[in-house]
Amino acid sequence: MASGAQPFDQGRPFEPGATLTEDGMLIVPPGAMQPAHPAAVFAAPEDDPVAAEQQLFANGLVVPIGYGCPTEGHCDTPCVACRQSQFTGWSAAVDLLIYEPYWAGGTRTFYHDGDTDAAAGVRLTVGHESSHGGGMELRVGGVDFNDLEYVETATSPNQLGLANLTTFQFDFDLTQRVWIGDSSIVLGVGPRAGMLNYQFGIDPEMQLNAGGLGLAATLHRPFWRSPKTQFAAVGFGRGSIMGGNVENAAGQQVADGTLSILEAGFGLEMRRQCWGGDLVGRIMYESQWWDSNLMSKVYLDGLSLRVGYQW
Question: Residues 67, 85: contact at Cβ < 8 Å?
Fold first, then answer.
């Protein structure tokens, strides 16, 4: 500890940007050389020798148990603990989903005539992460498409009809963040529920309710930072296989159901230190594949715009 250091006239000079915490932890900048002895003596700028119990390097991969970044992830020269501290705590975010559907089955095909068929949906995400990277994440969201035009080729001439399509998802994942240098991958696993509802023209309305297990992986790769702002490339993949039942509009079960949902996306994220935490903004291109025994595959793609806060 610094308080127990003995005078030493030939102490090693501090690396530029290095700091010493009250508990004897020396935080050094990227590229600094590690001394041979863990209790090496350092000469502070004011020529008052101090001894550090252990060193923490910004370019290292291991954070000592119980140690947290003294600035909660906002060191001017990022220490290795900055990485995890930035994600430690609670977070909440709202995504605006702007998706367009693509579908074809039998004699029917969604009709795209140049006019937009996109619809807006909302996804809410709430999560918590510990200082060791373990955590949980809850997601709820969906999209409702009304009056989608489709082509009926069984008639001559072909006719246009109107369809309605609604999707809903619920996920609860247990997560673990794994660090690879300054990049991290969040692995998640947990229960998932999904709902797919559709109606074509005057046909009866059908709805598939299913539940099962979901797996997820999210990549976070920072590429630019200042003392208060960080930009990162982000991407994710998520998949699940579920089983359930198909019901009619009256709520009567008409068949057993299976549902598989695959998702992927990539984009940019900005974090800005604000009010003691981080304000988060994100834009991503996303795609979803809904595959069920209820109907042919449904493809959704478009943009998601996120506003969130980490504290």
Answer: no
Q: pLDDT tens digits for 40-78?
A: 445 555 555 555 444 444 444 445 555 566 676 666 655
3-state class of 81 per DSSP?
A: helix
User: Can you tell me the distance from the alpha carbon of 109 to that of 214, in angstroms, rounded to the nearest whole number?
Assistant: 30
Q: Which amino acid is at 298?
A: V
- Rg, Å, the chain Cα set: 26
Please report where in the chains the tokens 């979803």 appear, as a residue.
288
Global pTM?
A: 0.75
In the chain the domains, ranked by start, together with CATH numbers, are 80-310 (2.40.128.100)
How many CB atoms within 10 Å of residue 39?
12
Tell me the DSSP string of 96-137: EEEEEEEEEETTEEE---SS---EEEEEEEEEEE-TTSEEEE
Residues in contact with 179: Cβ distance below 8 Å, sequence separation at least 6, in sequence order? 61, 83, 84, 133
**Taking CA 263 as the corner, what is the angle to CA 149 and CA 240, rounded to the nearest 5 degrees?**
110
The one-character DSSP state at 22 is T
